[in-house]
Automatic annotation (TrEMBL):
This is Major facilitator superfamily (MFS) profile domain-containing protein. The chain crosses the membrane at residues 39-62, 82-101, 108-130, 165-186, 192-215, 255-279, 299-322, 343-360, 366-393, 400-421, 433-456. GO terms for cellular component: plasma membrane. Residues 39-463 form the Major facilitator superfamily (MFS) profile domain. Keywords: Membrane, Transmembrane, Transmembrane helix. It is found in: Membrane. It is a multi-pass membrane protein. PROSITE patterns: MFS (PS50850). It comes from the Eukaryota. One of its GO terms (molecular function) is transmembrane transporter activity.
Length: 468
């Protein structure tokens, strides 16, 4: 764990007192020019926006694909499910390689592979082939959701981390709603294949940005790395000083340990439940919008996605402001678990939103009720996730990449199965009962898990004070 200790010290160095003479051969990323940093960050944002945005791209296309392939709409909607699941595992698999070979190659090559998986989905002529390519798209396309955090930590001073992480984090709020909206607009003027062809082009553009503006950011102050060519950096040659095999094994063991650390396990379960129902809405809402009493067309159904996007942004704003306020309020006796109190108000919004959404469907009321309910659900989803992520990253600062990957895994596991059982559940019990039950489940799960973490961490802190 000596390396982790060095990282902790390095992260809080005063970069104003570091001269370029003390820099390594390749250069400390914190000393790069603003232009170089901004262009690299722009490339990161493009690939991060596609991670979730491209995975939910097909959500507004499922009805048309069902007609073409002669399958039910509910079955067509499951084409995204395995991709959503594999997003979580793809992030976990990436962590050891990020630490062993550096950021740049693990960022670039999965992006290229994902581009070809989207191209394969574009050219597919059956549901099975299409779903296979979409699943592989999820496995490789999730990397920016994990690699962004170490890149930001490498490239910016500690005082700039919250601002840059917040900007980067907005891509995960906007992407899942912006992607389906754009796909639906394109569909109205052409076909679902043209829509996916556009997505392939967006991946190609993002890949070009990485090739042109991407640089290796791995750096430990005071350690000289071997000089390497820019081409070599794309293949992980000379990017780190780490022994490859030993580093891969070390981070595999670390992941296994941290997945089952009780605070991460409990908060991870909370994240899983919190994401299950919103992802269910995201992937199945079109099955309601195209049917009576709404009878939406592609443009109207796509535009509905902006209700989810607005809710996500409002949830993000709440989480950001709450984290600033709670730190100031407890400044003199700060403990990381105080950030978890940011889940209570959003939990109310989420439960109320699920009930509103279900009752609107049950009564066939105006679509405004669906939009308002969805917005409240996403306020809760994002704000609760912001609180839990802030707690986890602050508690384990030297394992930020590892923690981000674990939370990402729990998040995607939550949304994987809901499309399989929710349609049949609604047919059996009705929308009011289903979404009311979902509200009760999320309230119970979050209260039980988060309260337990707060109690356990509080006891640990009290014991430490008594020992002192």
């Amino acid at each position: 764990m000596e390396l982790d200790k060095r990282h902790s010290k390095i992260q809080f160095l005063d970069m104003d007192n570091i001269t370029k003479d003390e820099d390594s051969v390749r250069g400390n990323p914190k000393l790069w020019s603003p232009w170089k940093k901004n262009l690299l960050f722009m490339a990161l944002m493009s690939s991060s926006l596609l991670a979730d945005g491209a995975m939910t791209w097909g959500a507004t296309l499922i009805t048309y694909q069902a007609e073409e392939w002669d399958i039910s709409v509910s079955h067509s909607a499951t084409s995204m499910n395995y991709g959503i699941l594999l997003q979580g595992f793809g992030g976990i698999f990436a962590v050891p390689f990020i630490e062993a070979y550096g950021r740049l190659p693990v960022w670039l090559w999965p992006q290229i592979i994902t581009m070809f998986m989207v191209l394969g989905a574009t050219l597919s002529n059956s549901w099975g082939v299409f779903t296979t390519f979409r699943s592989l798209q999820g496995l490789f396309g999730t990397i920016p959701q994990v690699i962004g955090l170490p890149i930001i930590h490498d490239m910016y001073d500690a005082k700039d981390w919250p601002r840059m992480i917040n900007i980067w984090g907005t891509t995960f709020l906007v992407g899942p709603f912006l992607g389906p909206a754009i796909a639906g607009y394109i569909l109205e003027a052409s076909s679902w294949k043209i829509s996916f062809a556009v997505l392939t082009a967006l991946y190609a553009f993002s890949t070009i940005l990485i090739v042109v503006f991407g640089y290796e950011t791995y750096y430990i102050w005071g350690q000289r790395l071997p000089a390497t060519s820019r081409a070599g950096a794309f293949f992980g040659i000379g990017n780190t000083h780490q022994l490859k095999r030993a580093t891969l094994l070390k981070w595999c063991r670390t992941l296994a340990v941290y997945i089952f650390k009780l605070p991460l396990l409990l908060t991870g379960i909370a994240v899983m439940v919190v994401f299950t129902w919103p992802i269910g809405i995201t992937t199945t809402i079109d099955t309601f919008l195209y049917e009576p009493p709404y009878l939406f067309d592609a443009i109207q159904a796509s535009s509905m996605r902006f209700a989810g996007a607005l809710g996500g942004l409002l949830g993000f704003v709440f989480g950001f402001l709450f984290n600033k306020w709670i730190f100031k309020f407890h400044r003199n006796s700060w403990r990381s678990e105080y950030r978890l109190h940011g889940v209570w108000a959003p939990l109310f919004f989420m439960a109320a939103g699920l009930v509103t959404y279900g009752l609107t469907l049950h009564s066939g009321a105006l679509w405004v009720g669906l939009a308002f309910g969805w917005m409240m659900v996403n306020i809760g989803m994002v704000a609760i996730t912001v609180a839990i992520t802030a707690y986890a990253l602050e508690k384990y600062p030297s394992h930020a990449t590892c923690v981000a990957a674990i939370l990402n895994m729990w998040r995607t596991c939550g949304g994987f199965s809901v499309s399989y059982y929710q349609p049949a559940w609604i047919v059996r019990n009705g929308t009011a009962a289903v979404f009311g039950t979902q509200a009760a489940v999320v309230v119970a799960a979050v209260i039980l898990t988060v309260t337990m973490v707060i109690i356990l961490e509080g006891r640990k802190h009290t014991q430490q004070e008594e020992e002192l």
